[in-house]
Write a structure and sequence with these properties.
12-stranded antiparallel beta barrel, about 375 residues, two-stranded antiparallel sheet, 20 strands, mainly beta, Lipocalin, about 10% helix
């Protein structure tokens, strides 16, 4: 977790330095009047920008006929976040079994502060107002939205805070008594980094939908491509599950042998492609949606060298996905809206599989301030 925080701080510092230090200023031509004639003094041509300055400029290089540029450097908003999580463990074969878990939905609220492409904030769980108490859930999310590139960094850890939502223990076993029962034998943690490139970046604005900075003026769509890396840790106490099933169902229940593990750890390397569309259906209003599918290669590993999975295996390929949806009102100074980000990860082996869907639903309202150079006289 400290590593992720360090990455966010370094990226923020780099962008702030580049944005302030690499903006080139064009010089006005100097003239000198003399009796009977005006003779312009020779001037030097503007210094050509370096590759880093051009790259920083491209972050905001958009066609103003399609996208209204950001008028301000800073933003402040209040946001409510509802988190959802769904986890399914299953086995295959004639006697396949499955168990679906989900924790209690969290509702959090707090302030967020933004600089151009980056938003950082802190929220308090309304179900647990004691900020010093230990929580079974830890979440860290940071996103960067620029015209051309985007990045997501996230960390989630849930410990013994799941409830059983549904279960299939085999034919002839009625498992309704297990539904809604708290289960203290499952721990899941996910750490990830996603990077993506927006092809039609001059006409399409992701920041208009998810960073509330620029404003989309004309409906437009784009293809996207990206790369991602994440790690998943799953700890499952199958003995505790058998004990709970016996307690609630009044009979002995034996789990499939494929469930007989204590920990599963795997790395996920993926390449994704997707499409996004911004629909401007009224003045200052925007409805945005995007979907990316990723071909992911997952390789299980263990801290014990003797248990590490070695070699390449075509059976380790799976399909993951991420969806983003937003409804925004923005008049460049004030803004508000609703957005949702949903991620889906799948892990399949010969007799065992996990399916994880998690995401956030956000409702926010805020304002921009600190006019940028071209807009200072207008505000």
């Amino acid at each position: 977790m400290r590593g992720l925080l360090l990455i966010v701080m370094l990226m923020t510092a780099l962008m702030s330095f580049a944005g302030d230090a690499l903006v080139a200023q064009a010089r006005d031509t100097l003239t000198m009047e003399q009796p009977g004639m005006a003779t312009p003094l020779p001037t030097s041509e503007p210094k050509k920008k370096g590759w880093l300055a051009r790259l920083v400029d491209s972050f905001s290089d958009q066609d103003t006929a399609y996208v209204e540029p950001q008028h301000y450097n800073w933003a402040l908003m209040l946001q409510s976040v509802t988190t959802f999580d769904y986890y399914r463990l299953s086995t295959t074969g004639r006697d396949g079994q499955s168990i679906t878990f989900a924790p209690q939905t969290d509702i959090r609220i707090g302030p967020y502060f933004g600089w151009r492409w980056i938003f950082l904030g802190y929220t308090i769980d309304l179900r647990n107002l004691n900020i010093f108490s230990k929580t079974p859930r830890i979440e860290l999310d940071a996103s960067i939205y620029s015209a051309r590139f985007g990045a997501d960094i996230f960390y989630r850890r849930t410990v013994n805070n799941y409830k059983i939502r549904s279960a299939d223990m085999g034919k002839g076993i009625d498992t309704r008594e297990l539904e809604g029962v708290a289960f203290d034998g499952l721990e899941v943690s996910i750490t990830g980094l996603n990077l993506y490139y927006i092809f039609n970046y001059r006409h399409f604005s992701y920041p208009a939908a998810f960073a509330q900075s620029s404003c989309q003026k004309i409906s437009c769509g784009t293809w996207m491509a990206g790369l991602g890396y994440n790690t998943h840790h799953i700890a499952f106490d199958y003995r505790r599950m058998e004990e709970l099933a016996k307690e609630k169902l009044g009979r002995d229940v034996q789990l499939d042998s494929a469930f007989n593990f204590e920990k599963v750890k795997y790395r996920n390397i993926n390449a994704s492609v997707g499409y996004a569309y911004n629909w401007v259906f009224a003045r200052n209003w925007l409805l945005s949606s995007s979907l990316s599918l990723a071909l992911a290669y997952k390789n299980s590993y263990s801290e014990d060298e003797s248990e590490r999975a070695e070699g390449f295996n075509f059976g380790n390929f799976n399909i993951d996905g991420i969806g983003r949806f937003a409804l925004v009102w923005n008049n460049t100074r004030w803004y508000g809206g609703v957005s949702a980000i949903v991620r889906a990860y799948n892990y399949h082996k010969s007799r065992f599989a996990t399916n994880n869907i998690f995401g956030d639903l956000s409702i926010y309202f805020g304002f921009n301030f600190g006019p940028r150079g071209p807009y200072k006289k207008k505000k």
